[in-house]
Design brief:
single chain; alpha/beta; Rossmann fold; 2 domains; four-stranded parallel sheet; 12 helices
Length: 309
C-alpha cells in the first residue's frame, strides 16, 4: 500500500487513486456491494461476475496498480527524493478512506491525489472525492488532499495511443480497415447534471486520430449497464455493423477510455464484442492497453507537478 518507511521524511505525499477489483472469488460479494453503494448483490449477480472473472483468468488490475504506484514513485523521486506514493482504490482494498486516514496518522499533512483515469467526469470523479472526504473525516489529525483528475489531453497519453494504433495498423493489410476509439458508456441522465464526459472523450479521440493520422475511424461507447434507463451511444456493435457495410472487414478497437486491462476490456471487448464481430463476419482486433507503460507514468507525474484542479 505504501513504501516501506513508516515515518515520513516529508509532510507531503502523493496519493494514486484507482478503481480497484476483487482479488478472487471470495472478495466478489463485498466488492459488488461497494460498487452497488451498499446494496447487497443477488446470488445471480455474484455467480455471473464470478463466471466473467473466471473466463478472463481473473483481473490483473490490482497488480497493474501496484506496478504503477512503484513506477510513479521512482519517477517522482528523480526530482524529489523523499517522495512517497500511496495507493488507494474506490472499491476493494486498500480503500481510499483508510489510506487517507492512515497517511494522517503517519504524520502526512498534505496529499496530492491523482487518479488512474484521465477523464474528470462527475460520474467517475465524485466517488474518488467521496472516498478522500471519508478518509479526512476519519483522520486523527487534519490532512489536506489536493485532488487532481484531468489529464485527458496530456501529450504522453495521446502519444501512447497514436503510436500503438500505428503499430497495429502496420499488421493489417486490409485497405478497408477502420479504427474504433472506444470508451465506457454512462447513463444519459448524467448529461442533465452537466457531466463533461462526452466532450472530454470527443476532444481526446480527435487528438488521438489526428496524431495517428487516421482517415477511417469512429468514436464509440461500450459496456453500457444492463438497466432500463438509456445509456450514451452509439454502441460499439452498432458502429461495427455500419463500418462493415462500408467495406471494413477488419476493425481495430482502441479502448482509450481506460488505462489498463480489466473486466470491461478483457471480457466486454475480448469476449463479448469479439464473439459478436465473429458472428457478423468482422475481423476484430484490439490495441494493447497502456497498463503501466512509461507514457502513463509520465502523464501522472506531469499531473502531480502541474497545479490546478
Amino acid at each position: 500500500m505504501t513504501s516501506p518507511s513508516t515515518t515520513p521524511e516529508s509532510e507531503h505525499a502523493v496519493l494514486l487513486m484507482g478503481y480497484g477489483s476483487p482479488n478472487g472469488s471470495a472478495d466478489l460479494p463485498e466488492y459488488l456491494r461497494e460498487v452497488l453503494h451498499g446494496q447487497a448483490p443477488s446470488a445471480e449477480m455474484v455467480d455471473e461476475y464470478r463466471r466473467r472473472y473466471d473466463r478472463i483468468g481473473g483481473s490483473p488490475q490490482n497488480r497493474i496498480l501496484a506496478s504503477l504506484r512503484a513506477k510513479l514513485e521512482r519517477r517522482l523521486r528523480r526530482d524529489a527524493p523523499a517522495t512517497e506514493v500511496l495507493l488507494g482504490v474506490k472499491h476493494g482494498r486498500p480503500a481510499l478512506r483508510d489510506v487517507v486516514a492512515e497517511a494522517s496518522a503517519r504524520g502526512f499533512r498534505h496529499l496530492t491525489a491523482v487518479a488512474t483515469t484521465p477523464y474528470p467526469s462527475l460520474w467517475i470523479g465524485e466517488p474518488y472525492r467521496q472516498g478522500v472526504a471519508e478518509g479526512q473525516r476519519a483522520a486523527s489529525r487534519p490532512i489536506d488532499v489536493d485532488v487532481r483528475l484531468d489529464w485527458h489531453l496530456d501529450p504522453n497519453w495521446v502519444q501512447y495511443w497514436s503510436r500503438a494504433i500505428g503499430r497495429e495498423l502496420g499488421h493489417i493489410p486490409d485497405p478497408g480497415r477502420t479504427v474504433l476509439l472506444s470508451a465506457h458508456s454512462l447513463p444519459q441522465r448524467m448529461l442533465e447534471r452537466g457531466d463533461p464526459y462526452p466532450r472530454l472523450l470527443e476532444e481526446t479521440s480527435r487528438a488521438i486520430a489526428g496524431a495517428a493520422r487516421l482517415d477511417r475511424w469512429s468514436f464509440t461507447f461500450q459496456s453500457a449497464g444492463n438497466t432500463t434507463e438509456p445509456w450514451l451511444g452509439p454502441d460499439i456493435t452498432e458502429v461495427m455493423v455500419d463500418w462493415q457495410g462500408r467495406g471494413a472487414k477488419t476493425q481495430l478497437v482502441a479502448s482509450f477510455g481506460f488505462v489498463f486491462d480489466h473486466l470491461e476490456v478483457l471480457y466486454d471487448l475480448d469476449v463479448v464484442v469479439r464473439e459478436y464481430a465473429g458472428s457478423h463476419g468482422i475481423d476484430y482486433r484490439r490495441v494493447p492497453m497502456p497498463n503501466d507503460a512509461d507514457e502513463v507514468v509520465e502523464a501522472l507525474a506531469s499531473r502531480v507537478e502541474r497545479p490546478g484542479p
